[in-house]
Amino acid sequence: MKTILKLIGGLLVLAVLGVVALVTTCALRWPRNYPDVPMPAITASTDPEVIARGKYLVHAVAHCTACHTPFADTLASKPGDVLSPKGGFEWKMGPLGTIRSANITPDPRTGIGNHSDGEIARAIRHGVKKNGNGALFMFGVGPMSDEDLTAVVSYLRTIPPVENAVPPSEFGLLGKILFQGPMAFFARPHTYEQVPYVAPGGRSLERGRYLAEGPAFCAGCHSEYEDDGEAIVFVGPKFAGNRTNPVPDELEPEYAFYPPNLTPDPQTGRMAGWNEQKFIERMRAGRVWPGSPMAWESYRNMTDEDLGSLWDYLSSLPPTVRNVGEPRRKPDEELDD
Ligand code: HEC
Ligand code: HEC
């Protein structure tokens, strides 16, 4: 009996030591630094056409301002408004910490005026900051072609610098542990598979696919994904909704959002019975729920051609029967299949 108790006692001590070691390692290793992630070989252009394409990407398709502008400014904006990406969107994540987006205007002190083209491009394509640290939430930026990456960087060089010193993000001990464990993909460098590039200026299903799986990244939210320890991998048919990775309501965190099924399934597809006109009107109408993570204020600035291309692509997908439930609900509510 005594030996068994001793053995259990010994195991308990070992377990506690193990946890202490793990927690200490996590705390000491934070923030994780990835200086070896290569910089894309692109150079900013001064061609007005390239800059105009970058402007459209930043404020519409690739929705940079949805994260790089304070949320209140975004909510108060009107269609066509050109918001400054001066940073300062705050995600308050309780004991995990507070994440703040960077000022990406060309201010040399508080923005990206002293970043090289490659450093900006690396942040966009791989989620690594100038100082080599992983950039939280940049995994939400979809893959874009070298042409589009060049356009975004070229445009950012031309916008008015705004002096806005965003305080650094803060991380609680729990955040340091989770962002290196189950939530590691929040801050780990990533490389998404490139989607065949189709330039703007024409309507086609292929352009729709490029937008939806590339820079507009509808796929990133409206599909199931998993972290396989190295990368985010999509699971099951894309665009069939996301039931396992709900996004907290930005304004009422006791609610969560479940991106709906966008495939043309007549029962469970959110757009069942919609036609192109209804889709474009919906995309232009903006948010219904104030705390939704979807970049409604950016997407509504997309051209008719691009929204039409998106419709062509989404309505061509194989219908997938998948009930994702109410788009906004308390996270633990049970679902019937
Ligand atoms: C889902 C939200 C989100 C989206 C969308 C987003 N960003 Fe970010 N970005 C962030 C956050 C948050 C940070 C700061 C991360 C940190 O400090 O850990 C950041 C950091 C950056 C940085 C790094 C600054 C540095 O310190 O070197 C650059 C550059 C950047 N973003 C550019 C962009 C561009 C360009 C787009 C659009 C193509 C974009 N971001 C879209 C959230 C986002
Ligand atoms: C950051 C995550 C995110 C991204 C990216 C995203 N969505 Fe959504 N989407 C949501 C969520 C969450 C909802 C449900 C809440 C809402 O309607 O705002 C939603 C709802 C919708 C709806 C249903 C609206 C309704 O009236 O019921 C449509 C249609 C839609 N998204 C299309 C798109 C398209 C097209 C794209 C890409 C251009 C896209 N979404 C990108 C998260 C996202």
Summarize the helices and strands and which ones pair or pack.
Layout (H helix, E strand, L loop, with lengths): L1 H28 L18 H14 L2 H5 L2 H5 L14 E3 L4 E4 L16 H10 L19 H13 L11 E2 L1 H6 L26 H9 L4 H4 L2 E4 L4 E4 L11 E2 L7 E2 L18 H10 L10 H4 L4 H13 L11 E2 L8
Helix pairs in contact: 2-6, 5-6, 8-12, 10-12
The site of one heme C has 24 residues, from helix 9.
Q: Which small molecules are bound? A: heme C
Distance between the termini: 51 Å
SSE topology string: HHHHEEHHEHHHEEEEHHHE
Number of strands: 8
Q: What is the count of helical runs?
A: 12
What portion of the residues fall into strands of 2 or more residues?
A: 5-15%
Instruction: Kindly report the average pLDDT value.
Output: 95
How would you characterize the largest beta sheet?
A: 3 strands, antiparallel
Tell me what you see in this structure.
The protein has 337 residues and is mostly helical. It has 2 domains: 161 residues, no CATH class; 141 residues, no CATH class. 36% of the residues lie in helices and 7% in strands. The protein is built from 12 helices and 8 strands. The strands form 3 sheets. The chain has a 3-stranded antiparallel beta sheet with strand order 1-2-3. It has a 3-stranded antiparallel beta sheet with strand order 6-7-8, with no helix packed on it. A two-stranded antiparallel ribbon has the order 4-5. Strand 6 and strand 7 form a beta hairpin. The model has no long low-confidence stretch (mean pLDDT 95).
